[in-house]
């Protein structure tokens, strides 16, 4: 097929392998083919790199990737915006922006996700003055449920634009996004080891001192891996890297699968090693780290003031029960925003991520951990594991019903819903 290449794999799967779907999966190579496919479909969801741990992309009808659609960057240097293909990965997009002397103001710690998927779920990095990628959106070109193209921004179809900024893919398939950009910049990354008690005392000052600051803490260890990113003079790109050597970490994880009671000791042994590294380069090459080991993840955004209390309670619970949680927690800070369905729309947050190796049990542990997050006023990252109900959504998001009303207007037949999203937003 020329306009559409049909993927013949037996089923679609997300990155971790925990979400699968037997829906028809297509990669249109022309805009006409995409519009026609959406127009004919009774149920359709878009997918990017499959980095959602929730069944956001699953469908019993059609799953569409727009990665193969033709497109190019249209830069408006004066306005510091660029119209870019929505299906491009952050890795490709930021490299292309760099060639033009521009960059995104912030990124997360991995970059295979599509720009559209990252914005649709509120994906973010760290930095107390920096919001999620959704805050960079300035406009969207969408293929609607009727197969027709629509543009929305703050002036044109403003309600659709406000909902689309963090859309969960409910309003159409984004094919082009106008995104805010900044002049290209360089970063120096420094990784050090610090005692947990000292991090608790100093983190607010570290977050204010550095453009980006975050840390990782194994639940059974007493030290953290602190990572800071600061502006630096132009320099050559660094080699790819990870926050820790993954081959050795993989071996420890596999030992923990067979000997879960050894996990606390293994983590203490890991943290006896040296964590003292520095690298410099263009921002888009410094933000991401290698993440080859598969895991499941739950992430909650908590009021900034509640972050350390929640993390301390999580650590105490895991240590008391000697639970085999093999991955470190990740602690970041994110600026507040005004996006209807954003977990950051009440103000600045502490972002706390809990991971578990895919070969180890995670559902019961996540369920207990989620109760702690919720007790501290947390709201989940939409693409990470959570158990929100429709009632929860209504209690956590005052604009939820208005968001649903815009969805009903844009997609009256519910073409872009799936069973998971129907339970929350039908």
Q: SSE layout and pairings?
A:
Layout lengths: L3 E3 L5 E2 L6 E2 L2 E5 L2 H10 L3 E3 L15 E3 L9 E3 L4 E5 L4 H10 L2 E2 L11 H6 L16 E7 L5 E5 L4 H7 L8 E8 L1 E2 L2 E10 H14 L2 E6 L5 E10 L13 H13 L4 H8 L6 E6 H4 L8 E9 L3 H15 L7 E6 L14 E9 L5 H13 L3 E2 L9 H7 L3 H11 L8 H7 L1
Parallel strand pairs: 4-6, 5-6
Antiparallel strand pairs: 1-4, 2-3, 7-8, 8-12, 9-13, 10-11, 10-12, 14-16, 14-17, 15-16, 15-19, 18-20, 18-21, 19-20
Key features?
426 residues; alpha+beta; Uridine Diphospho-n-acetylenolpyruvylglucosamine Reductase, domain 3; Vanillyl-alcohol Oxidase, Chain A, domain 3; 3 domains; 5-stranded antiparallel sheet; globular
What does this structure look like?
This protein is an alpha+beta fold. The chain has 3 domains: 10-64, Uridine Diphospho-n-acetylenolpyruvylglucosamine Reductase, domain 2, CATH 3.30.43.10; 74-183, Uridine Diphospho-n-acetylenolpyruvylglucosamine Reductase, domain 3 (2-Layer Sandwich); 186-380, 3-Layer(aba) Sandwich (Vanillyl-alcohol Oxidase, Chain A, domain 3). 29% of the residues lie in helices and 25% in strands. It is built from 13 helices and 21 strands. The chain has helices at 31-40, 90-99, 115-120, 158-164, 196-209, 246-258, 263-270, 283-286, 307-321, 363-375, 390-396, 400-410, 419-425; strands spanning 4-6, 12-13, 20-21, 24-28, 44-46, 62-64, 74-76, 81-85, 102-103, 137-143, 149-153, 173-180, 182-183, 186-195, 212-217, 223-232, 277-282, 295-303, 329-334, 349-357, 379-380. The protein has an 8-stranded antiparallel β-sheet. It is globular and about 60 Å long.
């Amino acid at each position: 097929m020329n306009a559409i290449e049909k993927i013949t794999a037996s089923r679609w799967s997300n990155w971790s392998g925990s979400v699968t779907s037997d829906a028809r999966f297509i990669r249109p190579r022309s805009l006409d083919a995409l519009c026609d496919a959406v127009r004919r479909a009774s149920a359709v969801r878009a997918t990017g790199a499959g980095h959602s741990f929730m069944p956001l992309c699953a469908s019993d009808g059609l799953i569409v990737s727009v990665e193969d659609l033709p497109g190019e960057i249209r830069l408006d240097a004066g306005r510091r915006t660029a119209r870019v293909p929505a299906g491009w990965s952050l890795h490709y997009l930021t490299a292309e922006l760099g060639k033009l002397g521009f960059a995104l103001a912030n990124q997360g710690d991995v970059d295979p996700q599509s720009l559209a998927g990252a914005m649709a779920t509120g994906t973010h990095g760290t930095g107390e003055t920096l919001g999620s990628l959704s805050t960079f959106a300035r406009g969207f070109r969408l293929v609607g449920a009727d197969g027709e193209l629509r543009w929305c921004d703050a002036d044109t179809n403003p309600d659709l634009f406000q909902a689309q900024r963090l859309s969960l893919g409910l309003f159409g398939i984004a094919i082009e996004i106008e995104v805010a950009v900044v002049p290209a910049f360089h970063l120096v990354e420094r990784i050090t080891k610090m005692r947990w008690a000292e991090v608790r005392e100093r983190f607010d000052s570290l977050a204010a001192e550095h453009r980006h600051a975050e840390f990782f803490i194994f639940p059974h260890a007493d030290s953290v891996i602190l990572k800071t990113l600061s502006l630096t003079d132009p320099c050559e790109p660094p080699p790819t890297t990870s926050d820790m050597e993954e081959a050795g970490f993989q071996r420890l994880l596999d030992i923990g699968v067979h000997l879960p009671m050894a996990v606390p000791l293994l983590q203490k042994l890991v943290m006896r090693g040296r964590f003292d590294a520095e690298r410099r380069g263009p921002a888009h090459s410094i933000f991401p780290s290698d993440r080859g080991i598969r895991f499941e993840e739950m992430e909650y955004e908590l009021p900034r003031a509640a972050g350390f209390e929640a993390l301390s309670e999580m650590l105490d619970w895991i240590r008391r029960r000697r639970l085999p949680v093999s991955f470190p927690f990740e602690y970041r800070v994110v600026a507040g925003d005004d996006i209807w369905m954003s977990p950051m729309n009440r103000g600045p947050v502490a972002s706390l991520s809990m991971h578990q190796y895919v070969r180890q049990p995670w559902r019961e542990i996540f369920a207990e951990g989620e109760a702690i997050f919720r007790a501290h006023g947390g709201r989940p990252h939409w693409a990470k594991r959570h158990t929100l109900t429709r009632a929860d959504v209504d209690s956590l998001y005052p604009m939820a019903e208005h968001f649903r009303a815009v969805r009903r207007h844009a997609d009256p037949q519910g073409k872009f819903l799936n069973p998971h999203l129907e339970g929350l937003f039908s």
